Amino acid sequence: MSCVYHANVSLMKIYPMDSHKVWGYYTENIGEGSYGVVYKCMERYSKEIVAVKNIRMEVQDEGIPPTAIREISILKELNHPNIVNLREILMDDRRLYLIFEFLPMDLRKLITSRRQKHLDKFTTRSFTCQLLVAIHHCHTRRILHRDLKPHNILVDIKNNILKVADFGLSRTFDLPIRVYTHEVVTLWYRAPEVLLNTKRYGCPIDMWSIGCIFAEMCCGKALFRGNSEIDQIFHIFRILTTPNEKTWPGVSKFKDYQPLFPKWNENILMKSVKNINNIGLDLLRNMLIYDPSKRINTRDALQHDYFKDLNKNTLPAHPEV
Fold first, then answer.
1. 147 is annotated as an active-site residue
2. 61, 92, 120, 147: which is the annotated catalytic residue?
């Protein structure tokens, strides 16, 4: 089905060109993804609310953006209760419309809407588990998300549901590990190996991001809040200590590593993350291990004692471990 976009006095409409009947109405702008604007939309006949990602075609004859093709192909592989569902694809000469299921808010909005500015312990435990379940599903299918952050995680707090969204920067990975661009992951959630310009990376970069998100749910603010790549590196070092060849073998060989980096020697993670018990802190420490080869993976994280008392029947999907 193709469609065309028209402006109205108060609403924007999507018309299928083959029938010239209104498919649905845009009701509000709800955000922007790695490309394109996302709108809340009401389907005309069913009255169902959906999210529509409106992607402008690239200039001249270049066609659909590669990021859009990548997201579509990856989402077609990922049919999971904790991953946002791509319902339909519409397009015309100028735009591509990705029709997604709608969830009320993203995780960042949920955190900032709380009076105490952090999530309660049950919600934090459940949402961390659901996030791990979703990314474990991706990793076992050889897919890296590469842009995990609270803005890309949708939640329905009433029904205790979390879904990972925005796969525009995702990609499949192969063996042997290929050289990927290091311009991935929003700065605050970017793994240190990426910040130091490693030539190779893999699943551990997603786990680092999950650790940062876990900490943010606990304390209500981002753990590492740098305003540039070097500032981000120093924020990490201040909390987790400055790495060396003993704590992270091979770190000195990274392109952007400098022997004259300031030396922070005290690990203050416990002081920096509130509202977390010792078992949760142990999981967080394992998520934020410098050496990617020693950083905990999704399978082992899901089997951590932190989730021992979580009723798995309250989850949309059981862990595939």
1. yes
2. 147
Q: d(Cα 70, Cα 2) in Å, to the nearest integer?
A: 20
Ligand-binding annotation for 312, yes or no, is no
Q: List the CATH code of the domain at 105-314.
A: 1.10.510.10
- For residue 313, CA distances in Å to 128, 130, 192, 319 come to 15, 12, 36, 11
* Domain boundaries of the chain, sorted by first residue: 3-101, 105-314
Average pLDDT, the chain: 86
Instruction: Select the highest-mean-pLDDT range: 21-25, 71-75, 235-239.
Output: 235-239
Looking at the domain 3-101, which fold is it? Answer: Phosphorylase Kinase; domain 1 (3.30.200)
- Round to whole Å and give the CA distance between 64 and 301: 37
| Assigned token pair, 191 | 């793994």
What is the C-alpha separation between 89 and 259, in angstroms, rounded? Answer: 50
* Residue-level pLDDT at 251: 96
The residue with tokens 């791509």 is 86
For residue 178, give every residue at least 6 positions away whose Cβ sits within 8 Å of its Cβ, in sequence order, or none: 200
State which H helix or E strand residue 272 sits in. Answer: helix 269-272
Q: What is the pLDDT of residue 1?
A: 35
